[in-house]
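tool_call: predict_structure(chain=1)
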Amino acid sequence: MTDLLVCAALGIEARALKTDGLRVERVGMGLRRAEEFARRERAFDVLAVAGFGGATDGCLKPGDLVVADEVRQGGAVIACPWADTVAFALEQHLILEPEAEAEADAHAHAHGAARRVPAVVTGPIATIEHVASSDLLTRLAGQGVTTVDMESFPLVATARGRPFTVVRVVVDTPDHPLVRPSTLRAGLTARKRLRAVGVVLRHWATALEHV
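tool_result:
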């Protein structure tokens, strides 16, 4: 059986991701904690990093999902060759099992939102040291970065030839920054989306046994 390790920064993310048989470990928030976790050399066959992220521009909305095709930190880049496979599996799960989204949708409709199924996209994710300023987000968006986080790069650097993926659920965007009250609503929706991510990651890792 494939030993899948899922890394999440926060306890709320780890609890949302955890499904039957899924090994989820809490890393702690921020680049320094992620680097410390990476140095401990966990055993795994397949690695996933999942949790919340911030979009760099208004093309993505809270609740949308981003699967990294690259993870960047400064001038360093790690390519993620399994991005399309994971993104396709997420799309299929969200389409074929809409009941998993029913509660989130009902909440969204109650607040005037019209979207039924979240977008699932692939693109570069940048790991940064601090909460991003609007100027930094604008600059990263100009470089093609879709989303930012503060943990992924040092974690996926430990994969060393083993399959890995990074999935982020958008919580904040330049139009919906973290300090607004709407962030709480976006966070609740994102937490529900992470439950779907946990299911898909488990199925993806199992399928790798037959590749």
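agent: The first strand starts at residue 4 and ends at 8. Proceeding to next step.
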